[in-house]
Amino acid sequence: WTHKELLINQLKSIQLNHPELQNLRILLHGPVGAGKSCFINSVMSAFHGEVVTMAREQANAKKSCTKTYKAYQITTKDNENLPFIFNDVMGLEATEEDGMHPDDVVNALLGHIREDYQFNPTCPISEKDPSFIREPSLQDKVHCLVSVVSASSISRMEKDVINKMGIAREKANTLDIPHVVIMTKVDDDVCPLVKKDLQKIYMSKKIKDKVCACSNDLGPPMKLIFPVSNYYEENETNDTKDVLILLALVEIAKIARRCVRH
């Protein structure tokens, strides 16, 4: 819990060592309201030392507030660009008429979608669309797929949403793109111990049970599921939240770099 600056310096010093690559592209997807945009803002907040709102958020969202394909460059408080781009997409929903089309998650993984493309829940992007990239570069492609789910609702996720997430995971596997899970809202009402003291997170059986449920439902082993607490109500940052967020990003960066090298 005292290694925040060490983690920040570790992430600042990452070298990609690839002539075609300036940034690792990390795609966030998951159900509506899980905290995808909030996680992007929380990562930025950890580096800036103050709560930052860059990606659009909406409290108690029933429908996705993200309608277009957005890319966010992670920067430091000194406006130094770090080698990470987060792509935020429309949330997944159970019905076919709402939420992101699962085929567009696949198109994003392959690097076929330009920034600011507006998603159509009933129809994925076509090759005739001006926002379709026919010959994506290594920089256009995704280097890590991150499923964002809420610890407080993992047991209530609708089967159709889990199935849609499974489509993306299977495609990522065939493309050798690593898949991890960010589990948000761990200090909600999931565990009184953790709600009182976030540093007890690795001592909580209830949180471990939630991690196990994520692994069973979504596929990745428990070691690739990272519990975090986003900044969703605070006005100031704190080191405990920052350390959890930065630890997750360190691991994501490690496995994404291995993907690029291979």
TrEMBL record:
Protein name (database record): G domain-containing protein
InterPro entries: P-loop_NTPase
SUPFAM superfamilies registered for this protein in UniProt: P-loop containing nucleoside triphosphate hydrolases
GO biological process: immune response
Entries under Gene3D superfamilies matching the protein: P-loop containing nucleotide triphosphate hydrolases (3.40.50.300)
